[in-house]
Structure formats: C-alpha cells, structure tokens
Amino acid sequence: MLLLKLSANDLLELNARRRMVPHLAARWQYFRGSEASVTERLAWAESLVALAEDMVAAGRGNVEMIVECSATVDEPDDPEDRHVIDVVLVGRHPESGHLSVQLVELKRWSTVTRVEAAASDMVHVPGMKPKKHPALQLAASFAAFGSEAGPLHGLSYECGGFTYLHNATESTVWPLVGPGAPTGAYAHIYTQDRRERLMRDLRRHFVHDEGQSHAEILLARMNLRNTPLLDAMIKSRGEDTVFALRKQQREVADHVVEASTMVLDGPDQEALVPNPRRAVFVITGGAGTGKSAIGLQLKAQFEAEGRSVKYASGSRAFNGAMQEHVGYGDREFKESFTYFSSFVATPDEPLDVLICDEAHRLRERSTNRRWSAEKQGKRPQVDELLDASRLSLFFLDEGQSVRPNDVGTVALIKDAARRRGADFAHYDLRQQYRCGGSDAYVRWVRDLLGISGREPGQWVPDGLMHIEVADTPEELERIIVQEARAGASARMVAGFCWPWTKPRGKEKRLEADVRIGDWHRPWNAYSESFCENGAPPSKIWSVHEGGLGQIGCVYTAQGLEWDWCGVIMGDDMVRRDGRWVFRRGKQRRDKEAGVNRVAVPGSLDPEVRKKNLDDEDFARCVRHAYNVLLTRASRATVLYSTDAETREYLECMVGDVQIHGLRPTWDSIPLEARVPHQGRPGRGRGRRARRRSQVQVKKGQQTLF
Fold this sequence. Notes:
25 strands; 20 helices; disordered C terminus; six-stranded parallel sheet; six-stranded mixed sheet; 30% helix
C-alpha cells in the first residue's frame, strides 16, 4: 500500500493542477477495492496540502512525502494489524547525515472534548466514535517500521513521529497534549498555534535543498524497487537467497507444491503402480507481477527435491539473456532450459514438472524452417507440452500477445487440460513490481494505447515511475546513453517500422536501418554471433554491454527489463482526428546501397503486415507490441514518435513533467540505494548438484532461490 511519493514542492504543484486527489482516489480503489470516502478525499485535499505548505515555508520543500504507506508490502489479513501511515517524510538528517524519517498522522479534528480517566488511551471527538490517542497509533507504526521485518531494520537512521492537527489550537485539544498524554519520539503534537514549532523541528530533522531521493532507500527496503530478475538469478547461484516472494506469489507457489504431493510420486521411490493423475496450473498477470519469479522459485525447489524439471520459453531473447547474463554453460543450460517446440516427440518417461514461461507465445504447431518435414509438429503445441509432463505450469499475459500466430490463452490451455482429464487451476496476479511498482503507470499505458477500453487521461506523476517525451531521436539517445554511462541499465527499442538487414560482409557490418532524418542507427544484430565493433547477437543484445548502440524490438525485449528505456514509436501507429490509425508499410530495394529502405511508412514486421491479417488483428498486434515496449523500464521511459501529430498528442498526454525531484536519474539516487547490476559470472559451477544438496526452504518462508 503506497499511494504517492513526491516532494512537498511537487505535491503542491500536482494539487494546483487539480490532479492530486483524483490520483489518490484511483490508487485507493486499486488497493482497497472500494471508493475513497468523501471524508478521505477532504483529508487529502486539506491535511496533505497544509503539511506540504508548512514544509515549503520551513525551507524543506525538497523533503519527500510518501502518502498512505504500509510498513511492509504484504499487509496482514487482520485490519487491526495493518500499520498504514498517513505520511512518511524522508530526507537526510542535518547533523548525523543519516537517513531521516518522520511518521505523520494527519487529523482534521478541531476539538477534543475529553480523555476518560479509566481509558486514557481513548479520545473523544465531537460527532465521532471514541478514537485511539494518535500517539498510540504512531507507536504501533513506529515499532513496525523499525522491526526486523520493517524497512528501517539494519539501517543507520534517525526516526520519530508526530501528529498534526492543522484545524485545532493547543487549548481546543488540550487533553491530547496535557499531563498524562503519551510521550516518546513519536508523540509530538502540533496545532495551528504550534506551527512555528513544527517548522523549526522540520529544519532540525531534515537538511535544506537535498538533491537526492532518499525515499529510494526506503522503497528498496519495502521491496517496491525490485531486484532485476537476471540479477537475482546471478545472486541465487551462490548460497545466498534473494528476492522473497510476496504474499499472493507465495500463495500460488504453495498451492502448486501442495498439488505436487498429490500428483507426483516420491522422488526417491519407484511406485508399484504409477500415479495416473495430472495437474495443470495457469498463472496470469501483467508485466512485472512476478510470474517468472514464481516459475524460477518452483524450478529450484523441485530440482532440490530431485524432480525432473524443464523450464520452457517461446522467447530466444529470454533464454539467451538467461544463459549469457547468469553464466550457464551450454550443457548446463540445456539440462534445465528449453523451448516450447522441443516436445514434438513425447518423452518416453514424462517429466515430473514442465514450467512454460511467456506462454502467450504458444504456437498452433511446433514448426521450424530448418527442420525436415517429418520433424515438424503435427499436433497442437499445447498438447505436446501437456503430454510431456505430469505437472504443467503455464505463465502468461494475454496482453503481451504480439504476433498473429500467438495462440496462448487461458481458454486454450483449460480446454486441453479438460480433454486429458487433468486437474486445472487458474490464478491471476494483480500486484505488479515492475515500472517502479506503479500500477497507475501500467494502467495509463493500456488506456493510452486503447487496450483497456477506458478513456485515456493525462499522466499523473506519482514519484514511482517517470515518463517524458523527447523532441528528437538524438535527445532520446542522449538521455539513455547518459544514464547507461552513469551506471543504470538502459536500452533503446522501437516499433518494427524499418527493414532489418542481416550483418554484411566478412566483418559482419551492421546496416543503420532505423533512419529518422539525419539520425541513423542499426537494429540489434540479426546474427547468431558477434558482429563488427563487438555488437552482440540478438539473443543477448538486452544484457550485453555492446548492445547500447543498437535498437531493439519487441521480440528481443519481451520478458526483460532495464532501469531506463527509450521507446521510439514509428508510423505503424499514429494519432489522427482523436483516434489511433494503424498502418501497414512497404519496403523498396535501394540498389545503390544494396539494402532495403522504407517505401511506405508503417509496420514492416513480416508476421504482422500480411494482407491476410484483418485490420482488427493487425491493430491488436501493434497495440500489444507497444504495450510490451512501454513496460520494460523499472524507473523511467523516454518516448518519441516519428510522427509530429502523434508526438504532440503524446506530449499532451504526458503533460509537463519537469517537476523538481521527479526525474529518477542515476545521479539522483543515493549511493545506498544504487544497487550495481551484476556482472556476468563464470560458467559451469555444478549448479544442479549443489541445488540437491541444499536444505529445502520451509513452507511459508520461500525465497526466489
């Protein structure tokens, strides 16, 4: 639970645009499943603004305000145990230099009539039921934040808390501040006539004009700044465990493990009569909901039990990045990872477990232009996969289906399971952790592209995810390269709107196919090996340091992520007369250069621009491709369109983003929160043998590995 993270300056700017309360209300509904009450909205409009104005008046407008914040990502089931703070102020302490945190309860109360002597922890406010003394509310939150499970545990920090009653005076709420009131670092009370004291204490707690986002330290500790999946994989190859599964993710993993005991025989026992039961699980969820995290967790756990397990994908880029970045040797990688098309021939002995990631990329048949006719698949690919194992897991997002022959859906898999008499279960993951944990950004992208069916609105900066529109491709590239050189992971991607030339000559020279005015850059290498100037092959372009100078597309980006992503929208999707228009392009041969060039602007994806694909399916594929590209970043997206009218529309929808403190450059992140991306380790470290020797993780305490 976290509704907003902005500096006091930025929050007031957002409120001046009349966009703060609607944004908070939308986030509230997402997390709580109900409309925010009028009282709650008034509290945001009055109390948040009052506090922010006093912070600015105190010269501390740079201090960040985290609004409606839980101490942990996984809230307890019992509402009484939930510790949600109205505001958490985060900055740096002027004396110690440590992280400085103040927990704040905001109250619109104007009077408190009395405190019962027999129940001094309760206060009475006219027109309300008895309330807990606000200092006691803060005490529980104070303990939660500093506990072993809290985000402050293990840090060097200064922490306190206070209650602000901006409508009251000291005399009208004397029972709260008089003799017998709670005391402690969290028990300060400020009122209208104590405003000068509040501003003085704010200056005492926080430095002036700090240029870094110290809230990033807290967000990382609250698991809102996720460990990139491939980095987590590298770390997991040692003895350390990383990347704890969140509540819903853990529940899904637990259910699968429980089902396995009913379906699979004991790994060390040979059953007299083989268990005939089979089970199929489908786990759906948008980008960053943790589908791969669950799959890789279960792979590790089943391998540790001695089960036969394969992890299949329809993406060469995902498998290539996994092998290259995580450091698997060829043989070691093939022992565990494979492709959907690898099961044309049913294994003599079915696998115990087959995990299918990116299952929206299932094909109708398993085919390959390099295979002979007898090796081509004759049955539906989903049938081949189900027959290959006794426990099958499919992770998919139907919103990422980007090719006409992508047939992976829940309905398809459910029907195939039914035909085999297999047990079937479907889980849907809602909470996503990519894009800075900003579900608002993910929903905004889907609205913008016309996928959700909702009317798109202007982007509301929330401090979790950042987006801006570049005026030129040169500006986009400058930003991405600057962030990459500073230490962030960053890549440029584009819609498939230019020809894609294979490397030329013995030196394997890359042709600058992506041409926008005088700006020319090559696609990532259409190659299985390295090219001129160290350009990596396409399957590892996303993670190799030599990939920065090339442009990726949806097929080399899907399933992967970077801190910053520059997205170039081409002429396949342009804005005209208040609606999106989708275009098929054509290419021509440039005889002088010996390569293809754009003849008619639009999509040049050979799978998507086919004439036999109707307009509706063509538009769906293009929308979904940009949905994938726009959700690859974990901190910031830089967007550019080659079409002037579309670029103007995007600038309008993104709005003025030049607000102080919102741009999450690598330099604006404190050193403590800058987690260096893992370098590629050496290959061949006996992972499987080590896995089986590791102690199994106790149920309910699962980590990724």
